[in-house]
Amino acid sequence: MSRSTTASLMAARAALTQTRPLVHCLTNTVVQTITANALLAVGASPAMVDAPEEAAEFAGIASAVLVNVGTLNARTAEAMRAAAGRASADARPWVLDPVAVGALGYRTRLAAELLDHRPDVVRGNASEVIALAGAGAGGRGTDSTSGVDDAAAAAGDLARRTGGVVAVSGEVDLVTDGTRTVRVGGGHLLLTRTTGAGCALGALTAAYVAATGSNLWGAVAAHAHVALAAERAAAVCTGPGSFAIAWLDALDAVGPDDLADADVRDQA
After folding, report:
1. Which of 94, 97, 154, 233 could form a disulfide with 68 if both were Cys (CB 3.0 to 4.6 A apart)?
2. 56-73 pLDDT tens trace
3. At 238, is the secondary structure helix, strand, or coil?
């Protein structure tokens, strides 16, 4: 990792701690608790305002918005449209997590519609990103049937189309703005056995982008923070249950200097 990359990561962690961004999470019902706890652990503040009557108003108050289409219905879809539209109009950072897009038609159509509001970051697995970019079918529900490298071209195309960043999660994460690509390694397999870890990553990405003002380095820092915390949690846990607790503790403990140890590879 270059000195400039190390400096960017350390500065991002310090900025998040100092600014304590308020993240408006329109997310799925399965993951609300772990998402809120992960945001609190890193020093951000969560809010779960998903009423259509309030979503746009709160998006105008929050530091950043997360739209996660995991457990979708007509009411939450209306709220997501309103919040994404307000965030875009106010030039407020927002993150789209296209959960199971490509596998199910309703959410696929909604996610494609939300792209018109130009998300600052799209964060998903390889199959979701490929489907959202219109480059292929989706995976098996929330499970990806494609590898990160399979999604590299689609991620670059999607980033250029939105003017933002696309982050593809996998064994080694890929983060690109359509010109520059950064890989984030590390992490642990137990993340995939912890309900909501990936969805919480979307919220942390929103927090980091708000804190840094950088779509690329905010997304990279969030992925590096989550991966490093996972490695530390795996070293002290005995299984998935204790891992989830240890991971939250590790998210809290990772400071600016610790991110210098993250496995981040800047590919230019």
Report:
1. 97
2. 999 999 999 999 999 999
3. coil
